[in-house]
Design goal:
It contains 14 helices and 26 strands. The protein is of the alpha/beta class.
């Protein structure tokens, strides 16, 4: 899920002044090229080749940005995707699986997007190393899942991690622990781009260092960078030579994104004989997902529409669950041969996401990013599959963490499945307040994770703690006013209750 703006205010004037704008754009590109050349001069011999590739990718994005005229989509041209272009998962599942599942898996590579840090949850280092269930991290669960597949079907599906310069070193250290596992693990790094000053539109970096004063001068440019980085790493070529045909790409913090044999079978044995080069898993939108990207038909192609591209006047329409009924889970299945062809022809074009940031010292910068799903329009015979909600189980906050740590789910071979004891298959809506934002604080406030098998909605605000073996049912709202503290006693059962600042318990 991406935020940002489609055109930064600073560019608006420059973009709309015809010939002058053209001259200014050329001047900006020329100045940018000189600045980047100076940065390249600070590179060591070992860094030089890699940084040159990074610079090329960045300059391509910067050029596209300066050439852009107005918004990237015209609202009036948006059409509903044709019926056949978004298929039901049930229909695909009904085909059944062939006897030789191992031959399907022999064509697959699993890639996890592992560039993110755990800072939003108050953790240092890669987010994939946060413990989420029975002291297993996101990475542990991923390895367990693929190891189970490989052992069950006597196959050898490799795991590839796309790291960033932020996560690479820590991730590689931890990989030692999986040396005895039945999974071959590879890594490659996504690019490193310079943050640019909002006013001057020039890099704030003085050299290539990513430590000390230079730590905030660089950023990984979003997961859309996977195509170029994977290709440049040499791994794409290696896997093609080994006879691999598809990659399954997903966020490492989406615990629902496991290898699905029905989807893989559908891709390798298409019922209409036409090979699908790009398959996006989508799922039904709820009011909690209103900002998620959706699939549209545009200029005769299936295309991902992100909220960042939507004109302000149409944002409410975009968020509507009646007009746009599905959203992108970022679980993607992509043809390796197609990526190679498009990369060689320089034919992967993705909408630029302008991500404004304010650095610690107050400086306003802009990051140029892309999203992996935005490339769908570049591939032939692209397809959406409407999958069950269970395939989208992201852990972005401690509220999500409470769900996956609870008795709502059981863990088997690295995969979480919803408990059969849950009467309704929907996931409860949990909103934990700012006192729970950091994992460390969250764990201190919960002596044990409450029983939430019959919970519909939980809101917690203020200084609240939970004793052991608390049971929550229906709608529960707990609000400790400023200066107050609420301790939910061990063994408490709260069903449709509002608990307010002085520990009054009211029926909801």
């Amino acid at each position: 899920m991406w935020t940002g703006v489609s055109v930064a205010p600073d560019f608006a004037a420059t973009m709309s002044r015809g010939g002058t704008a053209h001259f200014e754009c050329e001047e900006l590109e020329s100045t940018m090229a000189m600045e980047l050349a100076q940065l390249l001069e600070t590179a060591t011999m070992s860094e030089r080749d890699q940084f040159r590739k990074d610079i090329e990718g960045f300059q391509k994005l910067f050029h596209s940005l300066l050439q852009r005229k107005g918004p990237s989509v015209e609202w009036e041209k948006i059409q509903k995707p044709p019926e056949h272009s978004i298929q039901s998962y049930d229909k695909i599942q009904a085909r059944g699986l062939p006897d030789d599942v191992a031959s399907l898996l022999s064509k697959l590579v699993v890639i996890k997007l592992n560039g993110g840090l755990g800072t939003s949850m108050g953790c240092k280092g890669p987010k994939s190393l946060i413990s989420v269930r029975n002291e297993n991290t996101f990475l542990d669960l991923t390895v367990l899942q693929i190891e189970h597949l490989n052992r069950t079907y006597h196959t050898d599906v490799p795991l590839v991690l796309m790291n960033s310069f932020n996560t690479d070193e820590d991730t590689k250290k931890i990989l030692q622990k999986y040396r005895q596992s039945h999974v071959k693990i590879h890594t490659f790094n996504q690019s490193r781009y310079p943050r640019i000053d909002k006013e001057s539109l020039l890099p704030i970096a003085k050299d290539l260092s990513v430590s000390g004063d230079s730590a905030e001068a660089w950023y990984p440019p979003g997961h859309g960078d996977i195509y170029a980085s994977f290709y440049n790493s040499g791994l794409l070529h290696t896997f093609l030579q080994e006879g691999k045909e598809y990659i399954f790409v997903s966020n490492i913090d989406n615990l629902g994104a496991t290898v699905d044999l029905n989807i893989l079978h559908h891709l390798l044995n298409p019922p209409n004989g036409k090979q699908c080069e790009f398959l996006m898993e989508v799922t039904d939108k709820t009011r909690a997902d209103v900002k998620g990207g959706t699939l549209i038909q545009y200029d005769g192609k299936l295309r991902l529409l992100e909220i960042a591209q939507v004109p302000k006047a149409h944002v409410d329409e975009f968020k509507s669950v009646t007009k746009f009924k599905i959203f992108n889970t970022n679980n993607l299945w992509i043809s390796l041969a197609a990526i190679e062809r498009l990369q060689k022809n320089n034919a992967i074009n993705m909408e630029i996401i302008l991500n404004p940031k304010t650095l610690d010292e107050g400086r306003n910068v802009i990051q140029l990013e892309t999203a992996v799903g935005a490339a769908i329009k570049c591939f032939e015979n692209a397809l959406g599959i409407n999958v069950p909600r269970s395939r989208f189980l992201p852990v972005k906050t401690t509220s999500d963490l409470m769900l996956v740590m609870s008795n709502l789910y059981s863990l088997h071979a690295g995969s979480l499945t919803m408990s059969d004891k849950r009467e309704f298959r929907t996931v409860p809506l949990v909103k934990l307040g700012s006192s729970f934002t950091k994992v460390q604080d969250y764990l201190k406030r919960l002596e044990s994770i409450p029983d939430i098998l019959e919970l519909d909605h939980l809101t917690v605000s203020g200084d609240v703690t939970f004793g052991k073996h608390v049971i929550l049912k229906g709608t529960v709202i707990i609000i400790a006013n400023h200066g107050d503290r609420i301790d939910i006693p061990p063994g408490a059962v709260l069903e449709n209750k509002i608990v307010s600042g002085n520990l009054r318990i009211l029926d909801h």
